[in-house]
Amino acid sequence: MSQPHFSFDGSQIPFRPGQSVGAALTAAGVRSWRSTRRAGRPRGLFCGIGVCFDCLLVVDGRPNERACLRLAEPGMEVSTQEGTGHGDLEV
Amino acid sequence: MTSKSERMFDVLVVGAGPAGLAAATSATRAGARTAIVDAGVAPGGQYWRHPAPSEDGVSAAEVAHLHHGLATYHRLVAGLRAVAQFSEHHVWTVTRDTDGFVVHVIDRTGGGERAVELRSRRLILAPGAYDRQIPFPGWDLPGVMTAGGVQALLKGHGVVAGPRVLVAGTGPFLLPVAAGLSESGANVLGVHEAASPLAWLSELGAVIRNVNKLGEGASYARMLARHRIPVHTRSVVVSAHGTDAVERVTTMRLDRKGRVVSGSERTIAVDVLAVGWGFTPQLELPLALGCATRVDVDGSLVCEVDDEQRSSVEGVFVAGEACGVGGAALATVEGEIAGTVAAGASSVAPRLRRSRAALRRFAQAMHRSHPVPAGWVDRLSDNTTVCRCEEVSFGALRSMQQDLDAHDGRSAKMLTRAGMGYCQARTCGYAVGCILGQEASRTSGFAERPVSSPLTLGALAASSPTERA
Predict the structure, then answer these.
(1) Multiple choice CATH, A5-84, 3.30.450.40, 3.40.50.300, 3.20.20.70, 3.10.20.440
(2) Angle at the Cα of B206 (from B205 to B207), degrees rounded to 5?
(3) What is the predicted ipTM?
């Protein structure tokens, strides 16, 4: 049986059912998937349990999803979150 | 409004970790109509974290070796048969009602977001705790993670955070983290424990009464020895280095007073730094209800409870880490007491009281033996990030103090935005309090959060305003 995948910034990330998006990215060697609003610094998993909100990313067009909590699903489209994740609304 | 929200429970437990599970099983056994609500995908909380149930994914069996006391876990989960269970349900606030409480919940099952209200005559809050952090140069680099987060990746997802891991901070929790990583194939470069190995000698009274707790620590120590993982005591990570992720960390030795020894720097190449300085209890819900608090031996703000785990608010019981960080065994005992009393029992078994007293003594000895070593503020540079969410530097906080003569938590929030971001100071609250020179836990401006779990305005708008009727 083939392993399920989701896409991350265009590449395919395999995962095991029950894993979070953050866990699957970590297993695939991806360390960061957000750039901060001010300094544009890279961030990824920090607390890993939904407390710190460092691991925010965009899932199927919806920003501010916590990668550590959101379970991976086949065919999900995941992308790096730049700033607030609402680039088009920024003033 | 959903059918769930029509139900009135006798006892509703928030949190399905050791304390919450014990509370719910005790309450249901005593005949109360009981519910348990938890944000996790499976019962267990952080201590007994389990993978999300799935057809052919990560199985509970493959992470079983990472757990301690699983027999207790299975017994407690088996005791939930008659309990209404709500997993992936995030409680965002609790309000009073004429005949009890309304628990406002966001149901996030399946990645959605749906507002739900649950009602109960009595509440048992068992919200648990998360890793306490102190900032240091480079701690915001990807690859620097909390020890608990690294453990959660292993227990909940079967994922090793990286090939080469260094474990650092203080407290007995560092040992199972290092042992679990090593058992799972990581190259654990070492455990850097800030405390002195001799600290326990002055706590023999508490230790002798808790020989089994010592045995737990000893079994991890043996495992580390078997994997040839060096444990460096009186050693601290002072900085992390790298461009887009951590590549190296610098450690230093500490003297007897917990100050770094100059010239003792060592630089070690790592992929992951797992760091933790004890735990911070999650007090949002007890504070929202007005429960009285006190400052515990470890400097954490915790709930004041009586001998039967009652808070100062009628009908609200608190159990586990929120009454003082003490580990799973203590949490389980407190949960059992809270569940039994909340269900209406008139007395608590003397063995539970005795067990709680001994375990609390042990917890306090642990806190005294594993303090956050003084002097970490002196190692921050002006550009070290303190508030990760709002990217507030140590320099910004310092100039606020020097130029504006402002020294309290509220001013720090207003003038620098420290603690105002996504996490609402859960991560930096302790550190900002220390930097401001206030006892961290007393800066209640950092602990009070009207919304305990974030939700969208859409979900809020969709919630039914029943209590206004």
Answers:
(1) 3.10.20.440
(2) 95
(3) 0.95
